[in-house]
Amino acid sequence: MGERVFLSIGTKNLEAFTKLAGIWFLVRAVEQPSTPIPLENFELLLERGPFDETHEKTLLVSSQIDVLVSKNSGGKMAPKLTAAQALGIPIIMIEQPIPPTGEVVESVGDVLEWIKGRNY
Q: What is the pLDDT of residue 97?
């Protein structure tokens, strides 16, 4: 889909991208990773959001990004997504993992009742 990829997924699980030859990656993180980044051809961008759409468009254009890879956080559409969409850049979304099965409660009161019902 492209040769310049913005990995907006943090620094975990980057090893999944190591088999992609000839790809340059822009990796954005809040802090310097504690382990080396396993990619051969990349730039690490350390910055903390929140970001607006103008900032994200500037980043995508100045870095000549072809593809955006992002995690689905389940919230409202992030500025990086609207910026990529406006620029016609393909977006690959990584879905959230399926949550583990278990009991679901809706409020703090329900949590307290659930805890009271446990025999420890």
A: 75
